[in-house]
Amino acid sequence: MSENKTRNNDRFWKNLRGLGRWFVPGLGVKRWFLLVLLGITLLGVGLAIFLLDLYRTDSTNPILLTILSYASLRFLPRVLRVVVFAGLGIGLVAYGIWQLNRSLLRPYLRPGRAVVEDLENFRRRERGPRIVAIGGGHGLATLLRGLKAYTRNLTAVVTVADDGGSSGRLRESFGILPPGDIRNCLAALSNDEQMLTQLFQYRFSGAGNLDGHSFGNLFITALAEITGSFESAIAESGKVLSVGGRVLPSTLHNVKLVADMQLPHSLNQVRVEGESRIPQMQGRVQRVWLEPNDASAYPPVIRALLNADMIVVGPGSLYTSLLPNLLVHDLLGALRASRALKVYVSNIATQKGETDLYSCHDHVRVLEEHVGDRLFDVVLCNDNYTGKLLDDSQWVQVDEKSLADGRVRCADLADAGYPWRHDSKKLADVLMSILAERTAPLE
Predict the structure, then answer these.
(1) Long-range contacts: 400-408, Cβ < 8 Å, 24+?
(2) pLDDT tens digits for range 224-250
């Protein structure tokens, strides 16, 4: 019996604390609650005037006099009557508004989540910093999955040089920009990565023309046909997935990634065309560029970079995900002109055919050889080398040259289950702490 009483008391105080959370600053609720309370107060004053007038004019009627006396609690002291009526009024208003909200929002509530929790989370992320993430592949999706817990003001800038797999086939068949990396980012930014997101990421297998295609790629392609533009298709896909942010292509031009590669045991260089072919070649990448090399950036990307609080480049494939974005000349110009904090996130493990035996310093060196020196304010590297990597990978070590660079920051960023990947929460936590250090007022 005592356990039930304790449980009921705990539930009562928990509900009372939950009710108080509706009045914390920033939720945009108090103003409307006070407006409702004012309206009810005015209604109550009008009713009181009517009752007083009725009470005075019909004071000779003993039945009406008795009813009005009990209804107005006249048998209680005046101060106590005010307290009782005010308390009952406020309680009924609060309870009515609470139940009305529950009724209206019931179709949109998540099991086990209070409305006030979702509202607090939404308002907090709505006021979050403006962050632009540049890259492609699974690395960018991992980064976005962590950052979306802190802000809704997210812009993902994705390469459109992909020409392999499902994206390459759709690009060749329909003449659209490759949707694969964009699909991954939309899924990562979705507010609810459940059934709809799983459907968006579903990949067909078996015989036939659909083999290897993902549903999301086909969906974006269909929307591009319906809306008449690739950028409109991305926007509509974001609405379907309830995306907390934006995903933008770095350029709307049909660009191709080209590389000069040095063959093993030879001084000769070969030209390799196509993003998907570069990692497959037996050789070392010397230089990459875009054709055409004068492709203009997508204008919303320029605006996002110039208005950003922080710009994050990486993680992702050095030559085939990061550089294809940075090689868009006016995008690079906006990146340099931006006053945002610029962070490069180095990969945890090397990639076969691209960055074999590369250290963290080597990654930064290659980037700066292509786009110029001192582009980044911070270079973020992983220093957790525990766990087993894939057979064809090595750790991207923080060597002496890296440590000599004052921009380098080291942290444990590895996913415990997949140590060659970044942990989205660890990465986002470190990035937000770096941003907080920069924006903190000087003492």
Answers:
(1) 401/359, 401/361, 402/359, 402/360, 402/361, 402/364, 405/361, 405/364, 405/379, 407/376, 407/377, 407/378, 407/379, 408/360, 408/379, 408/380, 408/381
(2) 889 989 889 998 888 888 888 999 999
